[in-house]
Amino acid sequence: MDKIKILCVIPAYNEAGNLKPLTTHLIQNLKKITSSYRLFFIIQGNDKSKMEIRKLQKKYPKKIKADYFTRPLGIGMAYKTGFEKINKSTTHVLTMDADLNHDPKIIQSFFKNMKEKKSDIVVGSRFIEKGAFYDKRLWKRVISRCINLFLKVILDLPISDATSGYRLIKSETISAIRKMLKEKGYPAYLEFILISHKSGFRISEIPIIYTPRVWGKSKMNKIRTFKDYFFFLPRIPFIF
């Protein structure tokens, strides 16, 4: 298993209170897979996140690195920043939220599914059997469900949740499509899946339970999110 070398890419915008529990649980579960793992945080905002990361770096030397930005980059740009940290030894990239919506306990299921399905990307799906989407915001649940149903039916995508950020990706997949990624905001999740699918990479999914955050506030703005998707959706025919 040590041949697996994982880079975890985690954008975090004012998530100081979630960084310690996330890192602790994440490392506990990564150790079950391989000793070769790195956590890379894209820290944005002006709360105490920088201080928290430095404490964690002292506890887990050589395992945690971060870039710091005072203003939010947008989720797409944040992931691009993280993808730049892929090196020649990296075999897999794990992407996830920093707000404890994604449970690190199921990381082994991602690897099991990738091996069984011979996939290049495994997506954690909220919209398949045994999956669930427990978010307090009705508008977010509605827009996520509608967009994913539309894409599944119209584009015949092989997965039911193309907007989930909990993913395991082979590093060569990212290297192959990275220059084609243009989106800075939330539509970046869709863009990545559409380009990957068009490029011939195999995509599968496993069920996840998406739980509401306990600490802090969501940074997803309703108006901005609708606006981003409004301008992105007409781009789909040119991508696909």
Write the topology of this structure.
Layout: E1 6-13, H1 16-30, E2 37-44, H2 49-59, E3 64-69, H3 75-83, E4 92-95, H4 107-117, E5 121-125, E6 132-133, H5 138-155, E7 167-170, H6 171-177, H7 188-198, E8 203-207, E9 209-210, H8 222-232, H9 236-239
Parallel strand pairs: 1-2, 1-4, 2-3, 5-8, 6-9
Antiparallel strand pairs: 4-7, 5-7
GO molecular function: dolichyl-phosphate beta-D-mannosyltransferase activity
Pfam families: Glycos_transf_2
Keywords: Glycosyltransferase, Transferase
If you had to describe this structure to a student in words, what would you say it looks like?
- With 240 residues, the chain is α/β, with parallel strands linked by helices.
- The chain has a single domain (6-239), classed as Spore Coat Polysaccharide Biosynthesis Protein SpsA, Chain A (Alpha-Beta Complex).
- The chain has helices at residues 16-30, 49-59, 75-83, 107-117, 138-155, 171-177, 188-198, 222-232, 236-239; strands at residues 6-13, 37-44, 64-69, 92-95, 121-125, 132-133, 167-170, 203-207, 209-210.
- The strands form two sheets. The protein has a seven-stranded mixed β-sheet, sandwiched between helices. Strands 6-9 form a two-stranded parallel sheet.
- Strand 1, helix 1 and strand 2 form a beta-alpha-beta unit.
- The longest helix has 18 residues, at 138-155.
- The N and C termini lie far apart (36 Å).
- GO terms for molecular function: dolichyl-phosphate beta-D-mannosyltransferase activity.
- This is Glycosyltransferase 2-like domain-containing protein.
- Belongs to the glycosyltransferase 2 family.
